[in-house]
Amino acid sequence: GSSGSSGSTATQKLLRTDKLEVCREFQRGNCARGETDCRFAHPADSTMIDTSDNTVTVCMDYIKGRCMREKCKYFHPPAHLQAKIKAAQHQANQAAVA
């Protein structure tokens, strides 16, 4: 039996694919990019923002195209951020398999 897993601290920062950082410019009301162009989240409801690290939890049902909640407490990202999350999930899956 060979144990080749030495640097276990490297995997500590696990990529959270269900979290997005909130745009600080948007919070100040002066993001020039707009939500369809900005790489940060523009949540319509400020109550969904986690103030400890300024992120929002993404609605994974919405990403999969099946969120049926009328008032969802999770963030529904625009198309370009959905693509980014899907790509991140794919990478995470690849890493988990490897």
Task: Explain what this protein looks like in three dimensions.
The chain is an alpha+beta fold. Helices cover 29% and strands 8% of the residues. The protein is built from 3 helices and 3 strands; from the N terminus they run βαββαα. β2 and β3 (55-57) form a beta hairpin. The longest helix is centred in the C-terminal third of the chain and has 19 residues, at 79-97. The chain is globular and about 40 Å long.
Report the mean per-residue pLDDT as an integer.
87
Could you give the order of the helices and strands?
EHEEHH
From the alpha-carbon coordinates, what is the Rg to the nearest angstrom?
16 Å
Helix content: 25-40%
Find the count of extended strands (DSSP E, 2+ residues): 3
Question: How would you describe the oligomerization state of the chains in this entry?
Answer: single chain
Q: Which stretches are poorly predicted, pLDDT < 50 over at least 5 residues?
A: 8-12
Class from helix and strand fractions:
alpha+beta
Q: What is the overall silhouette?
A: globular
Question: Largest beta sheet: what is the strand line-up?
Answer: 1-3-2
Which descriptors apply to this entry?
single chain; 98 residues; alpha+beta; 3-stranded antiparallel sheet; 3 helices; globular
